[in-house]
Amino acid sequence: MDADLRLDQQVCFALYAASRASTAAYREALSAAGLTYPQYLVMLALWEEEGQTIGQLGERMFLDSGTLSPLVSRLEAAGLVSRRRGGGDARSVTVVLTDAGDRLRDEAGRIQCALLEKLDLPPEDLLELRRLARSVVSALERAGKP
């Protein structure tokens, strides 16, 4: 078999497997906090910068509004965020944290620390991994633009 076509030689498969393993590692800890992994990512974005529009969140998370809106709806139903219509544009929806959503930040920090301990990788390896993953995203974005 051509070495280039072996599954274990594929960068895309390594990224896929790492993503699945990472998401699975978060699943149990996050379910105790009442969050799914995608909801956790939305919360991270809001803890970093509260009061983002759906469009801003989507751009930041690489999600379209059709995918993001149901996530925000479930977070709103859980009492963690609320949505506000924009003043001049009724189509513009801003997502803000509730008090409960803000309080969840401390628990999320503990979850993050526990999962980093599980990884047991040197900090410089984690930084390099993040840098390389961002490079992959950037390169694929550039390649996909006409």
Summarize this structure briefly:
The protein is mostly helical. It is built from six helices and three strands; from the N terminus they run H-H-E-H-H-E-E-H-H. The protein has a single domain (3-144), classed as Winged helix-like DNA-binding domain superfamily/Winged helix DNA-binding domain (Arc Repressor Mutant, subunit A, Orthogonal Bundle), CATH 1.10.10.
Name some characteristics of this structure.
67% helix, three-stranded antiparallel β-sheet, 6 helices, mainly alpha
- What is the helix fraction of residues, given as a range? 55-70%
User: Given the C-alpha coordinates, what overall shape results?
Assistant: globular
* Total strand segments: 3
N-to-C terminal Cα separation, in Å? 34 Å
Strand content: 5-15%
* SSE string: HHEHHEEHH
Number of domains: 1
Mean pLDDT: 91
How would you sum up the major sheet? 3 strands, antiparallel
Helical stretch count? 6
What does the model show?
This protein has 146 residues and is mainly alpha-helical. The chain has one domain: Orthogonal Bundle (Arc Repressor Mutant, subunit A). It is 67% helix and 8% strand. The protein has a three-stranded antiparallel sheet with strand order 1-3-2. Strand 2 and strand 3 form a beta hairpin. It is globular, with a radius of gyration of 18 Å.
